[in-house]
Amino acid sequence: MKNLLIPFDFSDVSMNALDYATKFGSKCQKATIHLLYISKSKLEKDKENELKSNFEELLEKYQGPGAPPISYYFRTGNFSDAIVDAHKSLDTDLVLMGTSGAEEGAESPVTRTSRLVLEADLPVLVIPVSHKYFKLDKILLALGEDVMHDTSTLNLLLDVSSRSEAEVDVLTVSRNPEGAGYSEADEINENTLQYYLEMFYSHHSFAENEDILQGIDDYIKKHQVDMLAIMPKTHSNNSTPSKGKLTMEVTLKSDIPVLVLD
């Protein structure tokens, strides 16, 4: 993992994401952090010069032994499109994006972050603004009940876990857990996890809960999980992609960083 991309606008949310990224990036040898400022329309020259000055001042604060190099860029246009374009042109491995989560009582709690993870086909690490520290000893992969046929996304999970030597727990929450852990799909997934995650794979747990998100949250709190990993699609041959309700809820409500494997 050599290149990390952060949508950045000097807000508390993006500053918190940058703080996390510098610590996360220090685990990646020679990793570069790219800050991306996105505006809907072309910036006036005075505004662009002001932003450049702010960026240069910011970068000075993050210099020091072992600190990852940081660069900054400007893009104009649609938010998600600009990120996808920068992700390709800068050859980044992962997008880190801060979020303030859903506002309490909001009827349609959609944020730029939750929209991005649904619209863009790229891996995103979502950092809640309330998460103020870096610790990565345990990762939880929330897995569905289908057989994983597209296993390529597990490579990123292995990369992240191996750099911090974090163990990976796997959890499947079912509304009807009868026989969970003994089906043919469970056995196939077990072999896949052992193969792709190597020594960092810990174990696969099964839980019953009508509320899938609550079941995941209960496990996180009980086992002191530092990062949640999810797959926004089923990655199954014979099923249609998930419409993303669970993915959106997780990115809006999680208190810990969420690695969206896509």
Automatic annotation (TrEMBL):
It comes from the Bacteria. It holds the Pfam family Usp. Residues 1-128 form the UspA domain. Belongs to the universal stress protein A family. This is Nucleotide-binding universal stress protein, UspA family. It comes from Salegentibacter holothuriorum. The lineage of its organism: Bacteria, Pseudomonadati, Bacteroidota, Flavobacteriia, Flavobacteriales.
